[in-house]
Amino acid sequence: MRDEITVMFGGEAGQGVETAGELLAKSLVRSGLRIVVSREYMSRIRGGHNTFAVRAGAGEIRAPREAVDILVAMNEETISIDSPRLSAEGELLDASGSAAAEGAIGLPTKDLAPPRYANTVASAVAASLVGIEEDVFAGAVADAFGKKGDQVVEANREAVRAAYGWASENWKGHLRLAQPSDAPKRLMIEGNTAVALGAISAGVRFAAFYPMTPSTSINLVLARHAEELGLVVEQAEDEIAAINMAIGASFAGARAMVATSGGGFALMTEGVSLAAMTETPIVIVVVQRPGPATGLPTRTAQEDLEFVLHAGHGEFPRAVLAPGSPEECFHLTRKAFDLAERSQGPVFVLSDQFLADSYRAVEPFDLEALPPVARPGDSEPTERPYRRYELVEGGVSPRLVPGAGLDLVVADSDEHDESGHITEDLALRNRMVDKRLAKMSVMREDVSRPVLSGADDYETLIVSWGSTAGAAAEAAEMLRAEGASASALHFPQVWPLAREQFLPALEKAKRVVCVEGNATGQFARLVRRETGFVMESLGRHDGLAITPEYTVRGLTRAGVPK
């Protein structure tokens, strides 16, 4: 029995690689196992080389691994590209019909089921090989194809029965996973869905977007539940319209958000300044991909931190949250709505393609234990006549929803006086700038603390932010297993920074290395700017997710203190 295993499906777009992978992943989760999914796909509707890899085990699984134990090749190209990744005991299942690989196990999909069910056969064989019960896998199949009718479900079940029968006769069984006996039920969820659910739990009522990979599925999840939840999801003509629609909805009292990627966010930056000047709450989710320009639309990166941190003209406060898991995607998105309402301005959630598309097995969210989210606006003014931008201590003026009472609500994108009317009084201008900047105190009240993984006593500290959290934590574990003294520190919030939360942890290490998905060490530079502390940088910018192995290789080139 194996403690963990990685299964990879490979083929071209249109061959059902994703369906095969999702069926296996769902079956593994229903068997009580933990998973991490990593997807690599090209920006094509058909063709190209796509993979869907599932790492699974009964213990904690936080990041993908590079070695593959079972490679299911749906086409010949997968054999040539991905077979070098096979582990020492790994097996290659050739479902392409090419017989192109020496030592491969030929999977006769055409003999087991009609060609249209080849992906179901391939997934069922892989499930059988790792020890998933046939009834569990058949249940996942029924759920996946149930909307297509009983006939389609039964045809797929026939394919499953044939696949399990073939596997039992042709497999020696050395790659089976140990099955937990009392594991709790878990959700199979990826980052984008978790962001959408976090927004729903926060009471989002309006979401506008223009489709842009890899952020689009956030809005599709919201749209799927819009009618039952009473929210509006609007596909705008472009990203400029999307953010302005969301600002308008928020001005009218609806909790509002936009979700986009780097190129789309570039068009939204004037709207960010509009939200800041009008002091209108808005949540902006930026799911990063490699740039500049169109870059690599379906790959991952952490290249937009400095862009998001400085986007928009003028000076105004903002917060930037950077989840590292689906659980953090849920909770930090909810927190973003609360911060936006309490600070009356833009708050960002910074994700990336790897996290957006990576399924995990997570415990169901405890909705009863969630903290409340601030309401959009006050019910009554503190005094009359009502002044929307009253100069108050802390900078957060009383906010009324237009039309909800008898008071006139005035807003303006020009500099304005306390009542919201345009002004060129330069002394008042100074006070208004100071008022807006004072709202940063609201954001500093509740900075999400960095999370230490490993012992408090360490010599090497691996720093991460966002989706690299799992790879950094597992890299530290690998180093400890080799006798090194190493731990990892994950930042779920990258702005504002509370130096008292992390500077002592950095200063006690002999070596601090920041691992991030960009070429210039953006977060390491930010920490140096804010604290003076200098970290080493270990970056990756080829569009692939950072793995524990990649991190360890980078660290050991220069030597790791024992």
Question: How would you concisely characterize the structure shown here?
Answer:
With 562 residues, the protein is of the alpha/beta class. It has 20 helices and 20 strands. It has a seven-stranded mixed sheet, sandwiched between helices.
Q: Can you tell me the overall shape?
A: globular
Give the total of domains: 4
* DSSP strand content: 15-25%
CATH architecture of the largest domain: 3-Layer(aba) Sandwich
Number of DSSP helices? Answer: 20
Largest sheet: 7 strands, mixed
Describe the structure.
The chain is of the alpha/beta class and 562 residues long. The chain folds into 4 domains: 4-170, Pyruvate-ferredoxin Oxidoreductase, domain 3 (3-Layer(aba) Sandwich), CATH 3.40.920; 189-369, Thiamin diphosphate (ThDP)-binding fold, Pyr/PP domains (Rossmann fold), CATH 3.40.50; 377-446, no CATH class; 451-556, Rossmann fold (3-Layer(aba) Sandwich), CATH 3.40.50. It is 38% helix and 19% strand. It contains 20 helices and 20 strands. The protein has helices at 17-30, 76-82, 109-112, 118-130, 134-145, 150-170, 191-201, 216-224, 226-229, 239-251, 262-278, 305-310, 326-343, 353-357, 426-438, 440-444, 469-481, 499-507, 522-531, 548-556, and strands at 4-13, 34-40, 47-57, 68-73, 86-94, 105-106, 187-189, 206-209, 232-235, 256-260, 282-288, 319-321, 346-352, 360-362, 451-453, 460-465, 486-491, 493-495, 511-516, 536-539. Helix 1 packs across helix 5 and helix 4 crosses helix 6. The protein is globular. The model has no long low-confidence stretch (mean pLDDT 94).
